[in-house]
Amino acid sequence: PHHHTTTPPHHHTTTTTDAIHIHHGSIDDLDSLKAGAAAADGGVVHCAFNHDFSQYAASCAADRAIIEALGSSLEGTDKPLVVTSAFAVIPSDATDETVGPLPSSVVPRSHTEEGAAAVAAKGVRVFVIRLPPTVHGEGDHAFVPKLINTARDKGFSAYVGSGQNTWCAVHRLDAAVLYRLALETSGRLGERGTVTRYHAVADEAVPFATIASTIAKHLHVDVRSIEPGEQAAGHFGWIAYFVTSDRPASSKLTREALGWQPAQCSLLEDLEQPHYYREGNT
Fold it and tell me: Which residues contact residue 261 at a Cβ distance below 8 angstroms, ignoring those fewer than 6 apart?
């Protein structure tokens, strides 16, 4: 098999072992991505994204270019392309896989799914996996550790307003199984010219106040409600948008199509584990 990984910009090499050819590329080097995709024998899974939120719109537009570059190497083949998206692309009151993305002019992250659709229109079998706000588990360095470190720095754990806005969630190992199933079943379930969407959702709706309270318990600090707007932005910084978002979601159709059954612990069970509260876990 041929495995494509990313490395810092302007650096791409190919390493050969007895069983695996590893192509080291970069999301900033489209030619390298095209070469890696062309060499891949079983399909391409695209999980990379530039999470520098100071240039979020540019990163979203770049993701579309990356997806179209990868797809160009798959045209005329039977190899599928599996793309990673997020629930920010659909309206907050939409929960299932049948709902398409909002325009990228409204939600920049929709560039991802627009790029996927453009590739599918050229005859490639394309699958989109939408990930929740938190893909949790040991080794998580995303939103949950940021919430924990903010609570530690501020001396209290916060939620906004009533805190009844919810997050969907999935354990990272369950998400990995979903990617594998999407790739393995692509020949049977994928249709050329269309995008098949899957939702990587185990917990459908976890109240944010419960997340904040669990964090407070383990840090031995208070939990407090704060006001939306300036107070929330001042407390949470760049993740305030995500903290205040209401993102319930369903994976019913995904489970039915793929037989995917999340088997790992829930978000709240994971938040009881010590690995999230080690100093320096950012």
Answer: 255
Q: Which residues pair with 127 in a beta bridge?
A: 82, 196
- Enter the tokens of residue 268: 């709240």
Contacts of 169 (CB under 8 A, 6+ apart): 132, 133, 134, 135, 136, 201, 202, 203, 206, 266, 267
What's the predicted TM-score (pTM) here?
Answer: 0.91
Contact at 8 Å (CB) between 243 and 229? no
Reported as a single tens digit per residue, the pLDDT across 152-191 is 999 999 999 999 999 999 999 999 999 999 999 987 877 7
